[in-house]
Each structure stands twice: as C-alpha cells, then as structure tokens.
Amino acid sequence: MQRLGGSMSLCYNLKYKERGSIFQSAYHARVVEGDAHLNYLAFYILVKNVLEMYPGGLKAASADFDDAWEWAIRYPFSSLPGIISGESDPITDDVDDLLSGIIGRGDSFKDEARELLKVYMVSHGEAFKAIMLEPW
User: Fold this and answer.
1) What pLDDT sits at residue 48?
2) At a CB cut-off of 8 Å and minimum separation 6, what does 91 contact?
3) Taking a C-beta distance cutoff of 8 angstroms, is the pair 98, 32 a contact?
4) For the CA atoms of the chain, what is the radius of gyration?
C-alpha cells in the first residue's frame, strides 16, 4: 500500500506540477489481532465510511439507522451494496468467502453494524481506540 500510494502521489505531482501527498496522511500498518478487530475493520471499511456521507453524518445515521442503512446500500460509490447483495463485481468478488465469513449473510451484519455504531456514538470512539488507525 505504501508503494502504491507513493507512486500515485509521484505521478499526480509530476502531471499537475504539485508537491506532497495526495492522501490525507501517511500509510499506517497495523496487525489484525483477533476476530473482534477483524469485525471492526469490516464495519469501518464497509459501513462507517459510507455513513459519514449520509445526510447529517454519523449522528443522524445513528439516530435513524434503518433509513441510513437503506441509503448506504444504495450509495453508488461504495463496495457495501455489492457485498450485501452478493452481486458479482470484479472489485468486490469474494471468491474465498472471506468477507461473508466475517459479515455473515442476511441481516446479521446490519445488526452488528448498528451495535458497533451505537457503541462508538456512546463512547465517543474510546471503545475502539486500541484498534483504530485514526480517530473518528
């Protein structure tokens, strides 16, 4: 990832005569330690980033989770809709069933996402501080 990000920045900077990183911050690596951490990462990547785009952000999404979930699974700039629906997509295909093993099938991931968002909102992120790469 670091090499990819660096080469993308280099190409962008050469093309547009810019300097610096094109990403928010430097690449961070962290070892995934345990199932709880892996479940959190699936939530973070697939759900949290999309719900930040929901009108009103995470606070509104937490207040009306069912509406926010329906909005999120229709959001076209995320892999969440394809993962949830199981549609074939060259980017999100889960040929080894890795993601489905983490998020399950049906409403189980939705229920887990609701609980993780609730815990986050109540604890203001403190509950996940040990496994987060960046603050919310």
Assistant:
1) 86
2) 79, 82
3) no
4) 17
Report CA dihedral (116, 119, 124, 125) to the nearest 10 degrees. Answer: -50
From residue 6, give the alpha-carbon distance in Å to each of 13, 26, 78.
Answer: 10, 9, 23
Q: Tokens in use for 127?
A: 């509950």
Indicate the pTM of the whole model: 0.66
- pLDDT tens, position by position, 52-106: 899 998 889 999 999 999 999 899 888 888 777 777 677 667 667 677 777 776 6
Q: Which helix (H) or strand (E) holds 23?
A: none
Please say whether the beta carbons of 7 and 23 come within 8 A. no
- H-helix or E-strand spanning residue 67: helix 65-72
Mean pLDDT of 36-50: 83
